[in-house]
Structure formats: C-alpha cells, structure tokens
Amino acid sequence: MSSLAHSLLRVLRQSERALNAVIQPIVFAGMAALIGVITLQIISRVFFTAVGWTEEVARFLLIWITFLGATLAFQRGRHIAVTFVVDALPSLPQRLCRTAATLVVLGFLSSLVVIGQEYMQVQSFQRSASLRISMTWVYAIIPLTAGIMTWYALVDLAGLALGDSIVRKDEDSAGEPVP
C-alpha cells in the first residue's frame, strides 16, 4: 500500500474513532438514564402511585441504545458472522468475498436509510402517549444509525480497495490493536 493510500486510510479510520468517541458516551448516558428511569418506575409502583411517563421513556431509551450500540458493534466487527470459509481462502479470493459482502451490506444500509426517513415522515403526525413528543424523534435513530454504519462500511470498502487485509479489528483509542 502506498504512503498516500496508507495516509488516506488512517484519516478514514480516525473519522471512525471520532464517531465512536461521540457515540460511546451517549450509549453510556442512555444506559445510566435507563437504569434511573426503571428504578424510579419500580420505586413509584411499590411505594407510591406509578409515574406514567417512565415506561415510555424507558422504551424510547432502549430503542436508541440498541441502535447506537449496534453501530459500535458493527464498527468493531462484533455482529454475528460465520467467516471460517472466507478466512481459509487465499488473499485475493478472501478480499473479493469481503468486498462482495461489504457491497451487500452497503445496499442494505442504504435501503435502511431511505426506509427510515420515509417511516419518520409517515409517523411525523403521531405524538407519544405520555410525553406528547413527535414520534419523528423516536424513529430518527433508524436512518441516523444506518447512515453511520454506511460510513463505516464505506471505510471498510476503501480499506479493501487499498489493500488493507484486516477489515475490522478491535483497537484502543490510540489505534493500537487490543489483545
């Protein structure tokens, strides 16, 4: 790989780490908020009158945490995959298989962005029962995270095109592989 290609790939990988640096604290804060809301819900039901909005907030938090966590898992290559056949192939066929798989993933994620945006528009008139917020905000996570994962897949595709043999690897914040 040429030094220009190596530099380009390094910049692309840094953009992934920057996105992760934003997403990780949001997921952590969402988990903390979810624990707090569910605790409030339990305490209020046992000792007082149930707080009505807690169930709705917990549901919305869980949806957002799930989708944001899926982007982190996608970037780290942690989604379920059966790769023993591809891993056993020589270098060129292995890269061709990974490229084909990445193109299929890009097609799916691109479709999910479009479908998610359409779903947001269809649900824009609807308001949540307790909080009375537009359901657009709840469903916005679908095209948002699909767009982020699309970016990650494009970075993978660039890595494959530039001859990077490892599509995804666990890295620490400095970009060093984690054992």
Structure description:
This protein is mainly alpha-helical and 179 residues long. It is built from six helices and no strands. The chain has helices at 3-47, 53-75, 84-88, 91-122, 135-139, 141-161.
Model regions low in confidence, pLDDT < 50 over at least 5 residues: none
The level of helicity is over 70%
Ends distance: 25 Å
Order of helices and strands: HHHHHH
- Which structural class is indicated by helix and strand composition? mainly alpha
Total DSSP helices: 6
Mean pLDDT: 89
**For the report, how would you describe the main beta sheet?**
none
Radius of gyration: 20 Å
The portion of residues forming beta strands comes to under 5%
Give the CA-based shape: elongated
Number of strands: 0
Descriptive key words:
single chain; 179 residues; mainly alpha; 6 helices; elongated
Summarize the structure in short.
The protein is mainly alpha-helical and 179 residues long. It contains six helices and no strands.
Secondary structure layout plus pairing:
Layout lengths: L2 H45 L5 H23 L8 H5 L2 H32 L12 H5 L1 H21 L18
Helix pairs in contact: 1-2, 1-6, 2-6, 4-6
